[in-house]
Amino acid sequence: MSSQPVCFSTRLRKAARAANRRYDTALSDLGVGVAQYALLRALQRLGGPTINTLATDTQLDPSTLGRNLRVLERGGLIAFSPGEDRRTRVITVTPRGQDLLGRAFDRWRSVQSDLEARLGPGGREALFALLDTLEAA
Question: pTM here?
């Protein structure tokens, strides 16, 4: 009897969900999950991008990005303003969003440190090298 091959996609999704749960738990009382936190960090880093620029940077499809941006906007964490022409809108992190990022960073960093410790010496670099290889495929 032959064993079934292990599906890379299934294993990657299970590992990602487990890691995301840790971040979501750490951020939960701030009212955001890791997906929203990551978007806020990307917006902060990009300094007021358009939706298209943000979509390219985060590699999120427009419908997923739109849903997450609406959640952030309803929470007063981001604001939209007109871009260079009528077809574009610029997204900025509001003062409330900046405050949340400041409060969330230590929690995020704590999860990062815990996961890195679980990977052991050299584990972070090895994992990132493997992920880079898969992303380039």
Answer: 0.87
